[in-house]
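Typical record was shown:
=====
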Amino acid sequence: MRKTLQVMNVKCGGCANTLKETLSQTFGEVEVDLTKTPREITLDIEEEQMEVLAKALKKIGYPLATEQMGFVENTSAKAKSFVSCAIGKMNS
């Protein structure tokens, strides 16, 4: 099923490249909309894969907007997103 989900900490094309590259290995083609805030990703995903997606996003610093996180966890996600963004810029 095609779904559009809001994702935090996505700022630029480097972030989008990292999301596309990382998630495509498991979920196929991923679209990233940089015109909306919070940013949105669109992909084909079944409901039973949502937990896998949420963990994958969190691991690279781009948690779902619906995810509840404390201060330390939120700060950690932001730091991870900066590294993921830099990697995305280098790989583009």
